[in-house]
Design a protein that fits this description.
The structure holds three protein chains of three kinds. Chain A contains 21 helices and twelve strands. By secondary structure, chain A is an alpha/beta fold. Among the domains of chain A are: 256 residues, Rossmann fold (3-Layer(aba) Sandwich), CATH 3.40.50.10420; 69 residues, no CATH class. Chain B is of the alpha/beta class. Chain B has two domains: 117 residues, 3-Layer(aba) Sandwich (Rossmann fold), CATH 3.40.50; 109 residues, Rossmann fold (3-Layer(aba) Sandwich). Chain B is globular. Chain C has two domains: 31 residues, no CATH class; 166 residues, NagB/RpiA/CoA transferase-like (Rossmann fold). Helices cover 28% and strands 22% of the residues of chain C. In chain C, the strands form three sheets. Chain C has a six-stranded parallel sheet with strand order 1-12-7-4-2-3, with helices on both faces. Classes of the chains: A alpha/beta, B alpha/beta, C alpha/beta. At the A-C interface, α2, α3, α4, α8 and α10 of A face α1, α2, α5, β9 and β10 of C.
């Protein structure tokens, strides 16, 4: 997927003015934020469990090479074929090759954010393979030719009416208006795709090193269908998704669905190991696992490694007041919200996303809910350090920073400057003690007044003994 | 023995609303502390730190250490600046064990005002006679870095004239975020707007908080939208009930 | 150099593990011990806990005194909901008196249009009200997936408290994990449209759990 995050600021303006989107986002907040809050307390010792989860992820990341080798060895021993991909293009080439090798013309696909990184669907269509997205949200997006705006609820930006219109147009069936009817219609339209597909494509929430398994969590059942019915299964996931044991996976599973959708557990958790045995009635004859790097290995051993703990629950975006107001598309790539504001510059190039690390108030709501305790604001701040080092800050901002630092280190001049500022602002505030415009700070005064100060600074009043 | 408290007024209170500083001092003295205001104090360095300028943040941290290390406690009328000192100063000196230790020790003795009053000084009753219906905004750093939530409410509960009407989402960011409020003004304004809606729906005549940055943001949006009635006060002003016009 | 070597090489360089031998030992020991993380407190009554959680996840739960009662219970359940009285079952359940209860059950993996699929379960997990299914010749996964009604006959003696206990049970009874282990926790669902939960997405619309001692 093309990275358009450089356009963030313009997108903010557009999204803030989009009434339908704003309505949709309010739903997300009430359902997901309240949903999480209702079930997360089911976990007996939440903090201990989050610590354990972070520990599990760190155990793997701190020795990723050997855990990957362990996984590869186990998966291969069970008959899976493990592929390694440096980039999205590599993934596309590998999947197209697998399709050609097995004479595949149609594929059914369950939701995979990693495949969105690669732009896999377009590449496969070009290679002559018809791909059907089967996750309801992704299916709707495929019909509408749109990108997901949330990693768990990809079509959160669309309302029921838009989906009704879309289905009526694309399915050529009478327009349905009830949500249950729309779901039933999608089920019936997609059923043949499941039954006829020669290849199933899925993501992978975790790779279990102990057993060489790919684990996927789904609610709709499409994940099970695409990994059970077609004769070829291709699972695509990031190299960081390894988890040591089934016990470790269990700890993470207590947190993932609760953090993501407010469910104690997803409807289905599938642990897929190897291909179909000769006597089996079902299951893929060929199981391919593609491990994508796409910039992840560069983070290993560095100050941003903690980002690789991420298990893609989406809680950070659900709780982010910035995401809540602009939705996912404004972020310009696959991953939105706080985790996306870090991953997009890290994987796509820091120079291509000048705004993302800065578009945060550091309110910390994200890291407070992160199941694997990623210090998201700290990582955003580290990206700001890199931006400054790389000379990406505007001349004006760099000057202001330097001037403020210099002043702060020179108390006498600082005192004069603040006294002058207090007096000037008091003067400009006029009778109602409010500034309506302030040159150089229109970002503030376009939407807000600035309450005027008293006119004297605390320090001067204190020194004059004006104590109360 | 009387606790010797170094008071850091914060750059925003210093310039924009000195009254808060005097209110805080009154509260600390009521709690039995000896309050000292080091004269050369300026800014804690957070604006630069949050903009990626670690180098200048370190220099300012060292200046702060020199001025405040000698006190029994350091108190600030801001969760955001207190968070800078408690959480981020030690982190800035991870590569220097000796300094790191000194900053860690300083962090232990540094408190946001209401946290200090409740958990260290054990102030039993707020001295002010403020009367009114309040709603409280929990500023992000104080809440999430320092666990300041119950402390201001506990103090407000000691005031017979005060009724607290909680707003919904009192812990959601108001959109201030320092330079964010100017750089992403539109987004910041929308967040402030959401906050103002919740404030209005709480049917209070005063919105109270513990960080002046957030309060300026909230007041700025309320006034721009034509609300000139709702009072916007720092929690210290309410607790000490400093007469608004006595000190400007 | 191929992608595998490049990726692993970059990681190796970044982590600079001089002690590869120790690393492998640490991994082997963690795998061998597979330590458990923090667990939910054990429930007083496994069966009650399982049933309560399963109901919360929109499964239906019935209790039978004997396995032989299952066909009658199922027939009544389907009748009440005016659902088709036919479907498929796992071979291990083929011997039940389905016909006598008015049901037409075939012992084979499910096809697209089979309305009812009757399965057993490897075990059940009380902490979330979850069925644990191991795929195999005798335990096809499609039976719990393609039909609109999935019926699972659960032996209350095989309800365990946690996922960890279920894995240990699997390690004890199976040489290696089967091709597919599926946790099933209620009917398939989607909340993709306006975050409104709708039961019956691509899998079953309803899941009936019949607790029956074997």
């Amino acid at each position: 997927m093309k990275n358009t995050s450089v356009d963030f600021k313009n997108q903010v303006t557009i999204k803030l003015a989009d009434a339908k989107l704003q309505d949709a986002l309010s739903r997300l907040q009430s359902r997901f934020v309240e949903g999480r809050s209702a079930v997360i307390s089911e976990i007996h010792d939440l903090q201990e469990t989050r610590d354990a989860a972070a520990g599990i992820r760190d155990r793997v990341l701190n020795d990723l090479e050997h855990w990957l080798l362990q996984f590869e060895q186990q998966a291969t021993a069970r008959g899976a074929i493990v592929h390694w991909a440096e980039s999205g293009e590599d993934v596309n080439r590998i999947v197209a090759g697998i399709a050609a090798q097995h004479g595949v013309k149609t594929a059914s696909k369950s939701k995979s954010m990693v495949s969105e990184e690669c732009g896999l669907n377009d590449a496969l269509e070009q290679a002559g393979v018809k791909v059907m997205e089967t996750d309801l949200g992704e299916y709707i997006l495929q019909l509408a030719h749109e990108a997901p705006s949330h990693i768990v609820a990809p079509v959160v930006h669309k309302n029921k009416e838009e989906i009704s219109d879309l289905f009526a147009e694309k399915h050529q069936l009478p327009r349905k208006t009830g949500i249950a009817e729309l779901c039933r219609e999608a089920r019936e339209v997609l059923r043949p795709a499941f039954l006829n597909a020669e290849m199933g494509i899925s993501g992978g929430n975790f790779l279990v090193a102990e057993t060489g398994s790919v684990l996927i969590v789904t609610n709709e059942g499409n994940g099970r269908l695409v990994t059970t019915l077609p004769r070829v299964h291709v699972a695509i996931t990031g190299i960081e998704k390894v988890v040591p044991t089934l016990e470790d996976v269990s700890t993470l599973l207590r947190l993932l669905p609760r953090s993501a959708t407010g469910q104690s557990i997803t409807n289905y958790v599938s642990v897929l190991t190897g291909n179909k045995a000769k006597e089996d009635h079902e299951g893929p004859e060929h199981f391919h696992i593609i491990l994508l790097d796409n910039g992840r290995s560069k983070l290993i051993g560095g100050e941003m490694q903690e980002m690789l703990r991420c298990i893609r629950c989406g809680a950070c975006m659900n709780h982010c007041p910035v995401y809540q107001n602009i939705g996912g598309h404004a972020y310009g790539w696959v991953y939105p919200g706080p985790m996306g504001s870090i991953l997009t510059p890290l994987l796509g190039g820091i120079e291509k996303s000048p705004d993302l690390p800065n578009a945060s108030t550091f309110c910390g709501a994200c890291s407070a809910v992160c199941p694997v305790k990623i210090p998201l604001p700290d990582l955003l701040r580290k990206l700001r350090v890199k931006q400054l080092e790389n000379g990406m800050k505007s001349r004006q901002e760099t000057f202001m920073l330097r001037a403020w630092a210099w002043l702060s280190l020179h108390p006498a001049i600082y005192a004069l400057a603040t006294r002058a500022t207090a007096r000037l602002l008091r003067l400009l505030g006029g009778r109602d003690k409010l500034l309506h415009i302030l040159p150089g700070a229109s970002g503030w005064t376009d939407g807000r007044d600035l309450p005027a100060p008293a006119g004297q600074t605390f320090r001067e009043m204190y020194q004059q003994g004006k104590r109360k | 023995m009387q606790m010797r408290v170094g008071f850091f007024v914060t750059c925003l209170v210093d310039t924009m609303r000195p009254r808060i500083g005097f209110a805080a001092i009154r509260l600390l003295e009521t709690a039995g502390c000896e309050v000292v205001v080091p004269a050369r104090q300026t800014c804690c360095g957070q604006p630069g730190f949050n903009s990626g300028d670690r180098k200048s943040a370190r220099t300012m941290a060292l200046k702060f250490l020199a001025e405040f290390e000698a006190f029994d406690y350091v108190v600030l009328p801001s969760g955001s600046c207190a968070g800078m000192i408690r959480v981020h100063y030690p982190d800035l000196f991870r590569d220097d064990p000796a300094l790191h230790q000194r900053f860690a020790a300083l962090a232990q003795r540094t408190h946001e005002l209401t946290d200090f009053l409740v958990n260290v000084a054990r102030l039993g009753k707020a001295p002010g006679n403020f009367r009114g219906t309040l709603t409280y905004h929990d500023s992000c750093s104080g809440l999430r870095e320092l666990d300041v939530y119950k402390q201001p409410r506990a103090l407000l509960a000691t005031m017979p004239g005060v009724t607290l009407n909680e707003m919904v989402e009192s812990t959601t960011c108001c959109g201030f975020g320092g330079t964010f409020s100017v750089k992403y003004g539109e987004l910041s304004t929308r967040m402030a707007d959401n906050k103002c809606k919740h404030i209005t729906e709480a049917h209070a005549n005063t919105i109270v908080g513990g960080d002046l940055g957030c309060l300026l943001n909230i007041e700025g949006r309320l006034r721009r939208k034509g609300d000139h009635r709702t009072r916007v006060l720092h929690v210290a002003e309410v607790l000490a009930d400093v007469e608004p016009d006595a000190t400007g | 150099m191929n992608a595998r070597d490049k990726i692993l090489g970059r990681i190796r360089d970044a982590q600079n593990h001089a002690r590869a031998g120790n690393q492998m030992d640490a991994i082997a020991s963690h795998l061998e011990q597979h330590p458990r993380g923090p667990l939910p407190p054990p429930p007083d009554d496994l069966v009650a806990c399982f049933s309560e959680r399963a109901l919360k996840l929109s499964s239906d739960v019935l209790k039978a005194d004997h396995l032989a009662e299952v066909p009658q219970l199922l027939a009544r359940y389907l009748n009440e909901r005016q659902l088709p009285m036919r479907g498929v079952c796992w071979p291990s359940l083929a011997g039940l008196q389905w016909g006598a209860a008015g049901l037409e059950m075939q012992s084979r993996p499910a096809r697209d249009d089979d309305p009812v699929g009757v399965t057993g379960a490897f075990c059940a997990i009380a902490e979330t009200g979850t069925l644990m299914m191991l795929s195999g010749v005798e335990t096809p996964a499609t039976t719990s997936l393609l039909p609109e009604t999935h019926v699972a006959v659960v032996n209350p003696g095989r309800i365990v408290a946690t996922m960890e206990e279920a894995w240990d049970q699997m390690r004890k009874e199976c040489e290696q994990p089967p091709r597919a282990v599926n946790f099933i926790s209620g009917p398939s669902r989607t909340a993709d449209i306006e975050q409104t939960v709708t039961l019956g997405a691509h899998g079953p619309y309803r899941v009936l759990l019949i607790l029956a001692p074997l």
